[in-house]
C-alpha cells in the first residue's frame, strides 16, 4: 500500500499495487464506525448500524454495475473489524474541472467528448436501475489508459439508489444543492431524470464557464449567497444567462435546453442525450 491519496468524510484512499503484475488500483477504506470516527467522535450504536447498512448498500449497487468503460469499476471488496475496503480503478488524472478556471468555458470540441462520457456513464447506471443522485464535476474522474489518454469515469455511489420498477419514484432528499433538479428542490417525487438535469448543469458549466443557477441577486448586491436563493432560482429553471444567449452552436444549445427542461416528462433522458446529434458529431473520440 502507498501513502494516502486523499482523506475525506467517507474515509481514506490509498494506492494499492498488485504484487503478481504490478497493476495499480485505488483502495478506499470506509470506517465501520462512520465518518464521525475520523474526527475522533464516538457514534451511537444506532448511528453505526445505519452507517453500516448504508455502506453495504453502496457496495451492492456498485458491484451490480459490473465493469464499464465509463464507470469506476469496483474490482473487489472485503472487510475487517475496522472498516470496509474497496478495490477500485485508480483515477489519478484529476476530476472534470481540475486545473480549469470555473469562469473559462471549454470549446465545444473539447467539452463534447467529456459530456458524451458523462451521459454514457449515467445511462449505463439507469439501465441497471440505479440513479446516482450526486452528479457533479468532482464525481467524474480521469483514468490514465495504457496509451496515455485520459478516460472520464463516474465515481462515488454513496448516494446512489435503486428505482425498483419502471414508473416508480423516490422521495428522499439528498445531493449537492447546486445540481438539484427543480422537482427535488420542490420536494416532489423524482426518478432518473434528476441525473439528466444535473448532467445538464455540468454541461452548461463546461460550455458557458459559469454555473447556470446560483443566488445571483445576493452575489450582485454583495451579500452572502444563500441556499434558499439558489433553490428559488433552480425551481424557476431559468439560467441567469439564458441558453439562447450563450455563444454556442445551435446543436449545443439544443442539448442544454433538452437537459435543463423544468418538466421532467419533457426532459431528455441521459440515454437520449448521449445520442443527441451534437454529442454524436462533436463527441466522437
From TrEMBL:
Pfam families recorded: Pkinase
Binding site for ATP: 28
Any one GO MF annotation of this record: protein serine/threonine kinase activity
Record's keyword annotation contains RNA-binding: no
Keywords: ATP-binding, Kinase, Nucleotide-binding, Serine/threonine-protein kinase, Transferase
Domain Protein kinase residue range list: 1-279
Transmembrane parts of this sequence: none
Keyword set includes Methyltransferase: no
Family stated for the protein in its record: Belongs to the protein kinase superfamily.
Entry protein name: Protein kinase domain-containing protein
Amino acid at each position: 500500500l502507498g501513502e494516502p491519496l486523499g482523506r475525506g468524510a467517507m474515509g481514506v484512499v490509498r494506492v494499492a499495487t498488485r504484487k503478481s503484475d504490478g497493476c495499480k488500483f485505488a483502495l478506499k477504506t470506509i470506517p465501520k464506525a462512520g465518518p464521525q470516527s475520523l474526527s475522533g467522535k464516538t457514534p451511537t450504536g444506532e448511528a453505526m448500524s445505519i452507517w453500516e447498512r448504508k455502506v453495504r448498500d453502496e457496495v451492492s449497487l456498485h458491484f451490480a454495475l459490473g465493469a464499464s468503460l465509463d464507470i469506476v469499476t469496483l474490482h473487489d471488496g472485503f472487510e475487517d473489524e475496522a472498516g470496509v475496503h474497496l478495490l477500485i480503478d485508480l483515477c489519478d488524472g484529476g476530476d472534470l474541472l481540475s486545473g480549469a478556471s470555473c469562469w473559462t468555458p471549454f470549446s465545444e470540441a473539447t467539452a463534447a467528448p467529456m459530456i458524451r462520457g458523462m451521459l454514457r456513464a449515467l445511462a449505463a447506471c439507469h439501465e441497471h436501475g440505479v440513479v446516482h443522485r450526486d452528479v457533479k464535476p468532482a464525481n467524474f474522474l480521469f483514468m490514465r489508459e495504457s496509451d496515455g489518454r485520459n478516460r472520464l469515469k463516474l465515481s462515488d455511489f454513496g448516494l446512489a439508489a435503486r428505482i425498483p420498477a419502471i414508473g416508480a419514484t423516490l422521495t428522499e432528499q439528498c445531493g449537492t444543492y447546486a445540481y438539484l433538479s427543480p422537482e427535488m428542490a420542490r420536494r416532489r417525487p423524482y426518478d432518473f431524470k434528476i441525473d439528466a438535469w444535473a448532467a445538464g448543469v455540468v454541461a452548461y458549466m463546461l460550455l458557458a464557464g459559469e454555473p447556470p443557477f446560483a443566488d445571483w441577486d445576493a452575489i450582485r448586491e454583495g451579500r452572502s449567497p444563500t441556499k434558499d436563493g439558489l433553490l428559488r432560482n433552480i425551481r424557476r429553471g431559468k439560467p441567469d444567462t439564458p441558453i439562447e444567449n450563450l455563444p454556442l452552436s445551435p446543436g449545443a444549445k439544443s442539448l442544454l435546453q433538452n437537459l435543463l427542461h423544468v418538466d421532467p416528462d419533457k426532459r431528455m433522458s441521459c440515454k437520449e442525450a448521449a445520442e443527441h446529434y451534437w454529442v454524436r458529431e462533436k463527441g466522437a473520440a
